[in-house]
Write a structure and sequence with these properties.
By secondary structure, this protein is α/β, with parallel strands linked by helices. The protein is 25% helix and 20% strand. The protein has helices at residues 69-74, 114-124, 151-171, 187-190, 194-209, 281-296, 304-311; strands at 10-12, 26-29, 34-36, 48-49, 58-59, 80-85, 99-104, 130-131, 138-143, 177-181, 213-220, 239-244, 259-262, 266-269, 275-278, 330-332. The protein starts with 9 loop residues before the first strand and ends with a strand.
Amino acid sequence: TVTEGYNFLGNEADVTEVPNQALGKWYKDRDGYFYWGGGVEEGIAPVVLADILPAEKINYQSHVGYLKKEWLTGNGKNTTVVLIDTGVNVTNSKFNAGLISETDLTDGASADKDHGTFICGLICGKGSFVTGVANDSKLVSIRYKDDITKLEKLLDNLVVALNKVIELKQNNPGLNLVVNMSQGLNKQQALVFPEKIVSVTQAIKTLSSLDALLFCAAGENRQLLEENLLFPALLPETIAVGCIEPEFANLPFSKKVDFISSLQEYRSYNKALEIVSDSGSSFSVAIMAAVSLLIKSTQLVSTKDEFKEALQPFSRDVQNFRFNNTEYDFFINK
């Protein structure tokens, strides 16, 4: 509740955009947040902050508008995405994403859920604040603490997480499944615990054999060169997605990277649900995973090759890669 004497900087809001017209007069401040300015009888209640709802909402489907219209109509229906990330804030209705379950591998640690919640919203959010690309898909969240300083524990958790996905798929063979993972290790980190890397690799091979698509972040710019590739994106069983800035467009990218996007700023949000700008390979891999959910809801796509073939009409050679500020642009790395 805003106290008496509060100096409000804002204007009366248009009745067509307020959260609840029945409550009477609303105001919108300079940051786009709504405040209730009294009941039907003006002045009987104090000004209160609305259930944080910025005037500008985020619709990530606009990033994939160049895809086939029939894919978009599927909306991800009858598909499931497993998000191996930092967890999802399930109490936040702004990101409601059809959560089936969440497994916590953090041993009770208070790991920040921001990254996982953002990726969830991008892929399958369907709350009042965010519209995900494939917002009719279901979500299974596997939460782990992505603390690179505790590398052995991180790798152990990845093995557990992947085995849980394998178990899920084996128990539900008809499940139309996609896995999204932003975590990536450079070769120096991967060499510290080679036996753990073998375990992660074996789990990914098993998962691939069960016709589940696994999308992994391959990194940015020079990380996409053969000698710098991130693990596990470098494995042939994964669908590796990276991103680059214009000045890196002509580098000899590794053929193990399946998709590359332009690296530019995109609308994201912070803890206060304020819209900010951000970028990175996590955005790119999540969007491609979501695109696969759209396609899988309308046609049978079980392998990486089938997915790349479905996207072939929209592929672009690196020499013709267009960089601009209006389109989230991808090309298939040939």
